[in-house]
Design brief:
Layout: E1 4-5, E2 24-25, H1 32-48, H2 52-65, H3 70-82, H4 86-99, H5 104-116, H6 120-133, H7 138-150, H8 154-167, H9 172-184, H10 188-201, H11 206-218, H12 222-235, H13 240-252, H14 256-269, H15 274-286, H16 290-303, H17 308-320, H18 324-336, H19 341-348
Antiparallel strand pairs: 1-2
Helix pairs in contact: 1-2, 1-3, 2-3, 3-4, 3-5, 4-5, 5-6, 6-7, 7-8, 8-9, 9-10, 9-11, 10-11, 11-12, 12-13, 13-14, 13-15, 14-15, 15-16, 15-17, 16-17, 17-18, 18-19
Length: about 350
């Protein structure tokens, strides 16, 4: 024992023998396993406080004292993930799994780290092991579904999202992403239902509102699409894509002035957005404002010189501005870039070889 506490000697001794003093002993250390547990708990507390480096030190010390401490390896891996030290996180998950092969959460954590390391095939394998270990763990189904969605395996992705919402019916992101799979499979009514469910669970999940709008537009429900775009833009006014998409829906509905307004907001937010410049050019053509149409198409081409549709639109504008040579050159360029209709316009307008 260490740190013996010595009691003070009594004063006023008589001729009688002094009373014997008893030393009090206090232990200042715990057995290694208990010290490891204490450090582990401290690390968990610091992790929850987002003091990741301090937590890492505690987990390091816990593992030094107890090399078979699976939970400490797991939590150190999770801490390293938060610190973006993904390779070290994978190594710690490896150790955790050696000590506890049935740990579905360790497989899931390693999958997340492998995704961060751009190793999708290995991550998918780990998500598969995670669901084998615990079929009720919805995030593992969800993330595997997301990986399968990214590689365009839509049927498999849908099956995973089905399992995710079965395991957790309140998993808004899983409903949302299943909606996106349904849209890719051209099952628009089902996609709309899934986006609607996601919004019911999480009303501020704005991508679901935007994607539902796009799906309604594909399904021919322009009124519903416009309402969703408008609701989205009332909550988020800094998304040029949303303005462009609502502009396209307004264009399809014959509201060309509204389309011009939306495309204008898009380019005000992002002056390099060639798609919006070209779309506004198309709307100006419908409004017979050919000078502005030519200007916008030219702007789109200054951003993307290989933009076939912009050459086509500028060709139309130049034709109406009595610039046949310029129109013919633009249509031929559009055709050269793969837009065959450019050849048709050139032929119908009598463009000669020299034009």
């Amino acid at each position: 024992m260490r740190n013996i506490l010595l009691l003070a000697t009594a004063f006023g001794l008589t001729s009688l023998a002094a009373q014997a003093q008893v030393d009090s002993v206090r232990a200042s250390t715990l057995p290694p396993a208990q010290q490891a547990e204490k450090l582990y708990n401290s690390g968990v507390t610091k992790f929850n406080q987002k003091s990741y480096r301090a937590a890492l030190q505690d987990f390091d010390r816990a593992i030094t004292l107890r090399p078979d401490f699976a939970k400490a390896f797991y939590n150190r891996a999770t801490t390293r993930y938060e610190l973006k030290d993904y390779q070290s996180a994978v190594q710690d998950y490896d150790e955790a799994l050696k000590l506890d092969l049935a740990s579905g959460t360790a497989y899931f954590g390693r999958a997340q780290a492998r995704e961060a390391l751009k190793q999708p095939a290995e991550a998918e394998q780990d998500y598969s092991k995670a669901v084998e270990a615990n079929a009720a763990y919805a995030p593992a189904w969800y993330y595997r579904g997301a990986l399968r969605f990214e590689k365009a395996d839509y049927a498999a992705a849908k099956a995973d999202f089905d399992q995710a919402v079965k395991a957790d019916p309140n998993y808004a992101y899983a409903w949302h992403d299943r909606g996106s799979v349904q849209r890719q499979l051209n099952n628009y009514p089902a996609a709309i239902q899934d986006y609607t469910k996601a919004l019911a669970l999480q009303p501020e999940l704005l991508p679901a509102l935007l994607n539902r709008a796009g799906t309604k537009r594909r399904a021919g429900d322009l009124k519903g699409a416009l309402q969703d775009y408008t609701n989205y833009l009332q909550k988020k006014q800094d998304n040029p894509v949303a303005y462009t998409n609502r502009g396209a829906a307004r264009y399809e509905a014959g509201d060309y002035k509204g389309a011009v307004e939306d495309f204008g907001r898009a380019v005000a937010l992002d002056a390099t957005y060639a798609f919006a410049w070209n779309n506004r050019a198309a709307a100006y053509l419908k409004l017979e404002d050919y000078t502005k149409a030519e200007s916008d198409a030219t702007k789109a081409l200054s951003i993307n010189s290989q933009y076939a549709e912009a050459y086509l639109n500028r060709g139309h504008a130049r034709e109406m501005l009595r610039n046949p040579d310029g129109a013919c050159q633009d249509w031929r360029k559009a055709a050269a870039l793969g837009l065959e209709i450019g050849t048709n316009h050139a032929a119908n307008s009598g463009c000669g070889e020299g034009n």
